[in-house]
Amino acid sequence: MFGSRAKTTLPTAAEALPGRATRPFTVPTTHEVLGTPLEGPWPDGTEVLHVAMGCFWGAERIFWQLPGVVTTAAGYTGGFTPNPTYEETCTGRTGHAEAVLVAYDPTRTSPELLLKAFWENHDPTQGNRQGNDVGTAYRSAIYWTTPEQEAAARATRDAFQGELTRVGAGEITTQLASAEEAGPFWYAEDYHQQYLHKNPNGYCNHGPNGLTCPVGVANLPAQTDVLPPA
Q: Which residue ranges does the record assign to the Peptide methionine sulphoxide reductase MsrA domain (predicted)?
């Protein structure tokens, strides 16, 4: 499992890097933009969704701007290595995807609205890559924690596939799974958290892909003023 093949082929649990029992770096306690706890505790009723859509820098910024979001964090999930580092994840030998934790208030937003932003701001047809970023760490994925999120993931995927088919684009390769199946969400290093707030001119390959994800109006809360990504 070395070289380019390691980056584009998911390892088995036996092949994955061993990792470690404790986190080898510090993580901020507070979200740099929202001023909320990065790792909780959050207000009662807060729900959590994990999404992966390529490099987590731009992906995280999309979600911290959305109404109803309590906090966001960059991290690693969907793999085998406990307490991975960024360098380890980039080799493809941990099995993890670069991902974003989205904690939100379900009375102010919905899984459908969050996933609308997910589908509309990356290319979910590229498999183990996103633009110039190649490897399993950059795969597209949704990992849910509630039945409502699962239903929204499946419904919005089907709706967005219809839009892709309409314009002659490819098939969605996004992985859909429960967060329990994906495994723990491991927080990324300090410098990755809210990276594009700290580095406004930093690398970002996310933004509108030109398509709209149709979502059922009946499933949306009253507040639908979703802000576009900066």
A: 50-205
